[in-house]
Model the fold of this input.
Amino acid sequence: EDQVTQSPEALRLQEGESSSLNCSYTVSGLRGLFWYRQDPGKGPEFLFTLYSAGEEKEKERLKATLTKKESFLHITAPKPEDSATYLCAVRHNDMRFGAGTRLTVKP
Amino acid sequence: NAGVTQTPKFQVLKTGQSMTLQCAQDMNHEYMSWYRQDPGMGLRLIHYSVGAGITDQGEVPNGYNVSRSTTEDFPLRLLSAAPSQTSVYFCASSSPRDRGTGELFFGEGSRLTVL
Done:
């Protein structure tokens, strides 16, 4: 069965303190790994798609990387506006989401 | 652009009552889906549709019905509400191209409480 595990569940950073979020997965025949951002009271918003090990995608202070078993979302010099829950998902037949990492960035 | 619109945003039901969560999109997307989001469990797929007249079950379909009579609308019906259906429900849509890249467009959610 496809599984997605995200860690940590919650992460508190000071503004400017870089860190990484982890998404480990088990799926047969990966057809994409996806990162979404979700603000409180809102629906998830698409960030990145990664298809193969070694692939990287960047957007502003975020960089997503992929290996055969996990993906990392690196946050460089975060700002308070980066505070959100970050969701990881994989697709075999349909999308399977992880529970998310709730990121708080303090000024 | 309205995107994906869900109504109502909040609803309280008593056990055994039925109701319909509405979802409408104005992007001419063929694919539409319903997810529920519970603390610590992530988003779970309830039902989905790849076009008008076509629906299929997701991971957690029991207790829910859907229909797709138009491209724009994809209502989710709770037949006899149970406390276990207390959750936040999200509707999402995408085009075939967006679905290939994994980009789903989500509504803002409907928070349902069943007493």
User: Anything to note?
Assistant: Chain A touches chain B at residues 4, 9, 32, 34, 41-46, 49, 87, 89, 91, 94-100 (CB under 8 Å). The longest strand of chain A covers residues 19-26. Chain A has a mean pLDDT of 94. DSSP finds no helices and eleven strands in chain A.
